[in-house]
Amino acid sequence: DLAARYGGEEFALLLPATGQQGAWQIAEQVRQRIKDLAIPHARSRIAGVVTGSIGVATLVPDESMSAGELVQKADAALYQAKHNGRDRVEAALQGRAA
Fold first, then answer.
1. How confident is the model at residue 96 (pLDDT cuts 50, 70, 90)?
2. Which is deepest, 2, 40, 67, 70, by most CB within 10 Å?
């Protein structure tokens, strides 16, 4: 497994040999632990503490989908989590963009 900063406020967790349900469970644990830390976020207009909106996407490697498409699916799921109220996990639909 690998955790890495992907952009300004974005991070990626790469979880080889982990299916969508397992990835969703890990993402939910991460989201809850971030919330439990109760880190103050005075500049936020959304919440007084730091929260986590997480998009999950999985892929069984084959020639039908590139790594870039996997990232696009995860990004779409992330924005769906933000759109649906933040501080939540959303999973991309397998086999197509979320």
1. very low
2. 70
